[in-house]
# Entry
Amino acid sequence: MNGERLRPYAMLAPALLVQAWLIFTGIYSALQQSLGYFPAAGLDDFSFRYYIEVLKNPDFLRGLLFSFYIAFVSSSLAVILGIFLAVLHIHSPQKDGLSNYLYRLPIIVPHTIAVLLVLSIFSSSGILPRILYSLGLLSSESAFPSMVFDRAGVGVILTYLWKATPFATLMVYTILRNTNPRLFEVALNLGATKWKAFFYVVLPLLKPAIITSFLFLFAYAFGSFEVPYLIGPTYPRALPVLAYTYYVSPELSVRPYAMAVNIIMVMVAFLLIYLYSRQIARAGW
Amino acid sequence: MHRRFVNLVLYVAIGGIMFPMAVLLVWAFAREWPWPHLFPTAFTARGWLYLLSPSTGTLPVLLYSLLLSSVVTFLTLVLSLPAARALAFYEFRGKRAIEVFVLSPMVIPTTAIAMGIHVNFIRLGLADTLWGVVLVHLLPCLPYGIRILTGVFSALGDRIEQQARVLGACRLKTYLYVTLPLISPGLVTAGIMVFIVSFSQYFLTFLIGGGRVVTFSMLLFPFIQGGDRHLSAVFSLAFIGTVLLWVFALEALVRRWVRKGQYFYL
# Structure
C-alpha cells in the first residue's frame, strides 16, 4: 500500500530531478556570483553592493523599463488579436482546410527567423517602404520612419507579435470550441446585446486561457535574448542583452553585475509564477 | 456576423503570416534587389550552392544538429512519459506545486539560468561538450514534453489499460501493446514540439557549447545579424525544410508502427 502511494513520486522523480538540478544549480550559482562570491576572479566576500550599483545604474533602469514595455505591449496585443481571430474563426464557415495548417506555421519558425521576416518587410530597404514608394506615398528610402533597431522597440514587438498571435489564437480557440455555443445564444435570447453577451458570458469563460497565455508570452518576451539582440536598439538594452554584455566582458570583475541583473530577472519570473499558480488554483492547468 | 467581414479578416491574418514567407522565398534567389524595385533585378543560386557545397561544411553541421536534437527529443520523451502519467492518473500531495514547477522553465529566463550554471558545467567538464549541450537543452524541452503528454494521458484515461490488466496482461505488455499505440499520436505531437524547441535554441547552445558544439541555428544567426539577406533567407528555408522533414519522418515512422489514425495535430 505504501509502495502504491509513493508510485507517482517515483514516476516523476527522473524528470523532476534533472529539471530541479538545472534550475537550482543555475540560480544558486548566479546568486552566489551576484553577491560577489566568485573565486575565479579573486572575489570571495559577500555583499549587496553589486545590486545597489546595478539598481542605481541608468542603463539597467532603462533596460528594465524597456523589457517590461516590449513584453507587456507585445503580449497584450497578441492576446487581444488572438481573442478577435479565434472568435472570427469559430464563426467562419471553413474551419478546416489549408488555412488551419498555415496559421500554425509561426510555431515551427524560430524567433531568429521571425526577426529576418520583420526585417525584410519593415526595414528601410524592406518591402513595405518599396510598396509605399511605388504607390507614391513615400518620397525616398530615408523618409520611411525607422521601425527596426528603434528605441520604441517596434521591430522587437512586431517579431513577438508574429510569433505569439497564432499561439494566443490557438489557446482561445481551443476553449471556444469546447464550450457550448448555446450559452451565447441564450444570453441573446434573454435580451443581452451581442457586445454584452460577449463581455459577460464569453469573455469570463475565456479568462483562464487569456491570463495563462498572457503570462507565458510576457515571460518569454521579458527573458529572451535573441530578438532584442538582433532587432532591438543599441540603447536601451533589454535585460537579457544587458546581462550578456556584462557577462562577456573580458574583465571578470564585471561578472557579478551580470548575475545581479539575472537574479532580478529571475525574481520577476517568480512573481509571474506566483500569479500563474494563483490562476491554476482557481481554474486548473 | 457578416460572413464577408469574417472571411476578409481571416484572409488578412493568413496573409500576415504568409506574405513575409513569400518575401523570404524571393530573397532566397535574389542576387540584386536595389531600392525601390518590387522584384529583384538579378537572380542567383549562390546561397544554395554555399549550403550544399562540401567545402563550407554546412551539411555536416545540419546533420549534427538533427542528431543532437533527436537525442534531446528522445531523452525528453523518455523522461516525460512516466512523469506525465503520474500527473494525469494519480492524486497525491504536492501535485499542484509540482505542476507549477514543471512549467517553470517556460517562465524563468533560461538565459539567466544558463549564465549561472555555466561555471558548474565548466567544473564538471560538461561545458563545450555535446552532452553538456544535450543536458542544458532538456531545460526548455521538458515542460513541453510533460505538458503535452499529460494532456494526452488525461484525454485517454486509464480504462483501456485496466481492461488489458484485467484480461491478464502484465504491466510491461500493457504498456507496449496498449498504452504506447494509443498515445502514439500524442507522442508524435510532443516529439515535434520538443524537436522544434531544441533545434531552435541559439543562446543555450552557444553559451554551453562554447563554439565547439556548432548547430545549424548557430550558422544561421550571424547571417541574420550581419544583414546578408540572401544567405539568411537560404539558411532559414533550409531550417524550416529540415523541421518539416522531421515532422513527416516522425509521422511516417509512427504510422508504420501503429498503422492507422491521423497524427499531425500540432
Observations:
- Chain A has one domain: 35-121+149-283.
- Chain A has a mean pLDDT of 90.
- Chain A touches chain B through 90 residues (CB under 8 Å).
- The two ends of chain A are 29 Å apart (CA to CA).
